[in-house]
Amino acid sequence: MDSVLRLVNPQRESDQRWVHTALAKLAQEAARSADTHLLKLNFPGFHGIDFYFKDEAAHPSGSLKHRLARSLFLYALCNGWLRGGQTVVDASSGSTAISEAWFARLLGLPFIAVMPACTAPGKIRDVQALGGECDLVDDPAQVHARAAEHAARGACHLDQFGLAERATDWRGNNNIAESIIGQLVLEAEPEPAWIVCGAGTGGTSATIGRYLRYRRLHTQLCVAEPAGSAYVHGWRNRDAQAVASQPTLIEGIGRPRVEPGFIFEVVDRVIEVPDAASIAGAWLLEDLFGNRYGGSSGTNLVACLQLAASMRARGERGSIVSLLCDRGERYAQTLFDPSWLAAHDIDLAPWTAALRASLACGRPPLSA
Ligand SMILES: *Cc1c(COP(=O)(O)O)cnc(C)c1O
């Protein structure tokens, strides 16, 4: 029987062999990888409140998108969408492209990243260093259409924005939420009052929000977003057609439109953070951890302090968990370059002072 099939359909047999080998390589990669650390901080202004930051920059490809890229490749392979030798394409502001390039190289596949031309140069270099090709488009709104053109010519579109929310196994499989809750098991406050994350694809917030319900936890989910982003407007009115009222300098979050992976119902609160506050937050993280993290990690820090100030005002104790989303080295020529900040009219001083006052005295950093 086996030999008859082999004669009848040798192409299918060799395609299947390639898929099995690719899946084995992904399983080996997962087995070689360690989980990311949950780093604890306490601040004098917030007595009785423990802060935890999950260091997603520690993944081999430098950001939380390592998890998503692994899931997207698994999803494409198990759906039968991806064959040996096929080019892989996706639209990305950078972090996803770097992680996808990393996995494409592991599987020996050509990779094209469609990116806005304004993407941080460090990220473009990272994609190229991993053997990926960058197709830069001037209008960020055109990245989806350009990725679709590549797909029409035969490339496999990983489609992070379309599939982020379903490619990840939200019930377990050591997704980011299961990992966080597991790592808190011996802590004084193992059930956090809040988990704070940003929203790009919306995949992270969807996974965390669903997992919290699934595990019947009382933890609330806060999405920290650049002021005026599409999710800020969309979440308020449950409007999937909402668009951003202003652009943002913070990469990875603050989408111009509501992406299909963003699940409104699992989010309990959205906090708007001005870009300058997020960047001051990223600089402050370097002081707190001795490592640089990107702008969206700064956004998360500011939102954590804002939530902690409300808890403090109500006399509550507890824990707040958030994410360090990517490595700050990627932004050496942008967020961490004083001349770039000056060129973008960003003055960090008032926000740095507000954040330091918050750490010291428990004040909300965003209060007027
Ligand atoms: C993608 C991304 C996010 C947001 O995560 P999603 O799961 O896509 O919503 C936050 N920060 C950075 C740096 C990112 O690349």
TrEMBL record:
The UniProt entry's GO CC annotations, sorted and at most eight, read: cytoplasm
Answer whether the UniProt record assigns the keyword Lyase to this protein.
yes
Instruction: Please give the catalytic activity noted in the UniProt record.
Output: O-acetyl-L-serine + hydrogen sulfide = L-cysteine + acetate; L-cysteine + H2O = hydrogen sulfide + pyruvate + NH4(+) + H(+)
Which cofactors are named for this entry? pyridoxal 5'-phosphate
Q: Which residues cross the membrane?
A: none
Q: What is its EC number?
A: 4.4.1.1
One GO molecular function term of this record is: cysteine synthase activity
- Asked if the record carries the keyword Cytoplasm, the reply is yes
Against Pfam families, the record matches this protein to: PALP (PF00291)
Name the pathway it acts in.
Answer: Amino-acid biosynthesis; L-cysteine biosynthesis; L-cysteine from L-serine: step 2/2
Per the entry, what this protein does is:
A cysteine desulfhydrase that generates hydrogen sulfide, H(2)S. The H(2)S produced by this enzyme may modulate central metabolism.
| Family (UniProt) | Belongs to the cysteine synthase/cystathionine beta-synthase family. Cds1 subfamily.
UniProt protein name: L-cysteine desulfhydrase Cds1
Coding gene?
A: cds1
